[in-house]
Amino acid sequence: GLPLVGRRDTELVLTGWELDALALHQATGVASLALPRGATCLPPALLPYLEQFKRITLWLGEDLRSWEAAKLFARKLSLKRCSLVRPGDLQPRPLEALNQGLNLTKILRAALPASHKSIVSFRQLREEVFGELVNTEQVAGVKWARFPELNKLLKGHRRGELTVFTGPTGSGKTTFISEYALDLCMQGVCTLWGSFEINNVRLAKIMLTQFAAQRLEDQLELYDEWADRFEDLPLYFMTFHGQQNIK
């Protein structure tokens, strides 16, 4: 079937038998090829002939062996561009489907994608895994400058990770978390506070005092200097306080 394929064709149906390719071309007009050694063999020498196609549908036969071969060939040809016609009573091989008066175009449109949006293979993850191994320190997250013991426990502040700190009233949760957040914020980590118990003015006062590392109420002449520096941090506060409607 190769002489019938044009250079501009981007879709192809791959079959396991010459008469299947002829039946498909006759019934649908789509570019169709037959594998020269049958439905269970895809010689590597043929792969360059298939590079021009953006979509390849494998309709190899009506038995389990052909179905398994189709899944194997799809991995060779790239799962993203392959679709498979699953064998069945209503989806026999193309020649048989034509003889039964079935709609071959409809069968092709119902072909299953070889890849699944929710399933990946290690081959697809391989380069990303290598990247994580090469950049071990970066993957570990942003380290705290002032909390080496915390770095040992959490390995740094990592994307996609949620940490919950608990403790009784007055144990220092807010004081510590504001130090924890300030440490990261000073390293450029964009920080958003949702403080429902302590209002934003009081919270900002605590953090500014921690940032300046001194009691600014005793040295008010330094307030503007420290406030200007504090203002440059990527720090934001939600305006919610107290009980809120869930919406």
Notable features of this structure?
Twinkle-like; ATP binding; Dna Topoisomerase Vi A Subunit, Chain: A, domain 2; alpha/beta; single-stranded DNA binding; 5-stranded mixed sheet; 247 residues; DNA_helicase_DnaB-like_C; two-stranded parallel ribbon; 2 domains; elongated; 10 helices; 5'-3' DNA helicase activity
Fold blueprint:
Elements: E1 11-15, H1 18-28, E2 32-34, E3 55-58, H2 64-77, E4 82-84, H3 94-99, H4 104-109, E5 112-113, H5 122-134, H6 136-140, H7 148-154, H8 173-185, E6 191-193, H9 200-212, H10 223-231, E7 235-237
Parallel strand pairs: 1-2, 1-3, 3-4, 6-7
Antiparallel strand pairs: 4-5
Helix pairs in contact: 8-9
Q: What do these coordinates show?
A:
- With 247 residues, this protein is α/β, with parallel strands linked by helices.
- It has two domains: 2-119, Dna Topoisomerase Vi A Subunit, Chain: A, domain 2, CATH 3.40.1360.10; 164-237, no CATH class.
- The chain contains ten helices and seven strands.
- A five-stranded mixed sheet has the order 2-1-3-4-5, with helices on both faces. Strands 6-7 form a two-stranded parallel sheet.
- It is elongated.
- The mean pLDDT is 88.
- InterPro entries: DNA_helicase_DnaB-like_C (IPR007694), P-loop_NTPase (IPR027417), TOPRIM_DnaG/twinkle (IPR034154), Twinkle-like (IPR027032).
- Pfam families: AAA_25.
- One of its GO terms (biological process) is mitochondrial DNA replication.
